[in-house]
Write a structure and sequence with these properties.
By secondary structure, the chain is α/β, with parallel strands linked by helices. The protein contains 14 helices and eleven strands. The chain folds into two domains: 248 residues, Aspartate Aminotransferase, domain 2; 136 residues, Aspartate Aminotransferase, domain 1, CATH 3.90.1150. β4, α7 and β5 form a beta-alpha-beta unit. α11 packs parallel to α14 and α13 runs antiparallel to α14. The chain is globular and about 75 Å long. Bound molecules: pyridoxal-5'-phosphate (PLP). Its EC number is 4.4.1.8.
């Protein structure tokens, strides 16, 4: 399949987003790769059948291993992440768990960032420990703490930068240098930054994961995971996906490819609106602290500026202490912010987050913690909606 028009000089990002992973001449001129539904893939001759096992992708002989649609999304995301190969999973969590299962064996030591996505942590606690893997957590923004926890048996360092809920930025190049000195792998959950705002393989990552459910799909209407590996990690990643029978449904893949085409324009807006909303909230009387690596006072700001090309629309807000009834009023007064899990769609969300489970003490999260997703609505409308709801919550206190 021809996946990109040929030219000597590489095309710029926005051009690649519009053109990678599709080949109209191979699909009756259709602009988008059509949805392929199928389990059985027929061969014309015995030779044709046998050749399918020896091609570059040795698993093109059965629907579970995907279709031209699967290869299209994999090729497009691999190009953007800058890796060697990509493979799809039915969800973002599934991409995380199978990357870990592919690399780890009994007796290995796994280091995980303390602010990792909750279900990844539950998987490590419930499944990996049961399989005899030594699981340990490190302080996400303290590289010295991580280095001190390295053991000869350390096989994988799992990072997520910034971390879920508390948004600590990690020094990935420094972490990768230590890990690679002893042949360990660095696996990154790159969902927050997307392949546009953080280039994992330029910073020493071995496997990069996208919960495509979030920004790549971008419309809150499909679930999908994508893991991209460098050449060293690829055989283990591919084997894990195939051995466990992981496969992604064609409709979800189609929606992810459709979302990918507009990723760049959407991310520019999420970046700008997220920052403007964060700045407005910083000035509000009900707010103790805004956690957003794009803000100059943020502890992760310097590394974010060095390593990232932008910020997504997801950030945290620590409120000054508030009663339960004030919190209820706050959420009742949102007109534009939906209350619900996931993020990365076109619409804004707000969530009251449970105190995050941590092994390494982290300061600065004493009041109620909100996770906010700035969507694609007019940013001034978003600021007025959020600040107005906070005003109402404060009024209750004064009235009481
Ligand atoms: C949502 C999320 C996931 C999991 O994605 P699903 O598609 O919901 O399984 C993984 N990592 C991060 C950082 C996420 O936000």
């Amino acid at each position: 399949m021809r996946l990109l028009p040929r030219r000597k000089k590489p095309f710029e990002l926005d051009t690649r987003l519009a053109h990678t992973g599709r080949a109209p001449s191979e699909h009756c001129g259709m602009v988008n790769v059509p949805i392929y539904r199928g389990s059985t893939i027929l061969s014309d001759t015995l030779e044709d059948w046998e050749s399918k096992k020896t091609q570059d992708n040795p698993m093109a002989n059965y629907g579970r291993f995907g279709s031209p649609l699967t290869r299209s999304l994999e090729a497009a995301v691999c190009d953007l992440e800058g890796g060697y190969r990509s493979i799809l999973f039915p969800s973002g969590l599934s991409a995380c768990t199978h990357a870990l299962l592919g690399l780890l064996k009994v007796g290995d030591h796994l280091l995980i960032s303390d602010s990792v996505y909750g279900p990844t942590r539950i998987f490590a606690e419930r499944v990996l420990k049961r399989l005899g893997i030594d699981v340990e957590y490190f302080a996400p923004s303290d590289t010295a703490d991580l280095i001190a926890r390295f053991k000869p048996a350390t096989r994988v360092v799992f990072v997520e930068s910034p971390g879920s809920m508390t948004f600590e930025i990690q020094d990935i190049p420094a972490i990768a240098e230590v890990a690679h000195r002893q042949d360990a792998f660095v696996v990154l959950d790159n969902t927050w930054a997307t392949p546009l705002f953080f280039k994992p393989f330029e910073h020493g990552v071995d496997i990069s994961i996208q919960a495509a459910t979030k920004y790549i799909v971008g419309h809150s209407d499909a679930l999908l995971g994508i893991a991209t590996a460098n050449e060293r990690a690829w055989p283990a990643l591919q084997a894990a996906a195939h051995d466990f029978g992981e496969t992604a449904g064609p409709d979800d893949i189609f929606l992810a490819l459709r979302g990918l085409r507009t990723l760049s324009v959407r991310m520019k807006q999420h970046h700008e609106s997220g920052l403007r909303l964060a700045e407005a909230l910083q000035a509000h009387a009900a707010v103790a602290r805004v956690i957003h690596p794009g803000l100059p006072h943020d502890p992760g700001h310097a590394i974010w500026q060095r390593d990232f090309r932008g910020a997504s629309g997801l950030f945290g807000v620590v409120l000054k202490p508030m009663s339960r009834s004030q919190l209820s009023i706050l959420f009742k007064n949102f007109n534009l912010f939906g209350i619900g899990l996931s993020w990365g769609g076109f619409e804004s969300l707000a969530l009251l987050v449970d105190p995050p489970k941590r092994c390494v003490p982290t300061g600065g999260c004493d009041g109620p913690l909100l996770r906010i997703h700035a969507g694609l609505e007019d940013v001034q409308d978003l600021i007025e909606d959020m600040c107005g709801a906070l005003d109402s919550a404060l009024c209750v206190e004064t009235a009481a």
